[in-house]
Amino acid sequence: MSVYPSMLIHKILLEAGLPPGVIQLVNGDAEMITNAVYNHREFSALTFIGSSKVFRKLYGKAAQGVAEGRYRDFPRMIGETSGKNFHLIHNSADIENAVRHTIRASFEYSGQKCSACSRIYVPHSQADHFFSYMKEQVEKLRVGSPEVSGFSVLYG
């Protein structure tokens, strides 16, 4: 887990007006925190980023709590396993460069890599430019060209 980026995004959300307590960012000893959360009657949701093996264990632990009637409601579970990434495009970004790197992150290795881009956050002020250029560049992609590999498939 990347503690600093998570903390920074949490701080930005709060400064943008997200009410305190809506999202809990908790860092510390994983086992101690997990036990405290999973033993609390009000446990209602978990967003997890990490390995599939660990998420299966957490999901099973939540299911056990549901079966025992430990929780007020059914906890919602989201697992981002195998590390899919997102791109956060700033309104001052070089859009053509951002598009090139988004395409590369999304489609290299057929998207089957731990850093594959699966979401894009684009400010309204740049959305038309970003998505029109994205469409233009994606239309140039060639699928299944054995004579060309890697990045050149995208732009070659």
Descriptive report:
With 156 residues, this protein is α/β, with parallel strands linked by helices. It has 2 domains: 3-81, no CATH class; 85-155, 3-Layer(aba) Sandwich (Aldehyde Dehydrogenase, Chain A, domain 2), CATH 3.40.309. Helices cover 45% and strands 13% of the residues. It has 6 helices and 4 strands. It has a two-stranded parallel sheet with strand order 1-2. The chain has a two-stranded parallel ribbon with strand order 3-4. Helix 4 (95-107) links the parallel strand 3 (85-88) and strand 4. The longest helix is centred in the middle third of the chain and has 16 residues, at 52-67. The protein is elongated and about 55 Å long. The two termini are 36 Å apart. Mean pLDDT is 84; it is low at 146-156.
Secondary-structure element series: HHEHEEHEHH
| Rg estimate, integer Å | 20 Å
What are the low-pLDDT stretches, counting only 5+ consecutive residues below 50?
146-156
First-residue to last-residue Cα separation: 36 Å
**Structural class assignment:** alpha/beta
The strand count comes to 4
Largest sheet: 2 strands, parallel
Please give the domain count.
2
Largest sheet: spatial strand order: 1-2
The amount of beta strand, in percent, is 5-15%
Mean pLDDT: 84
What is the general shape?
elongated
Number of helices: 6
Helix content: 40-55%
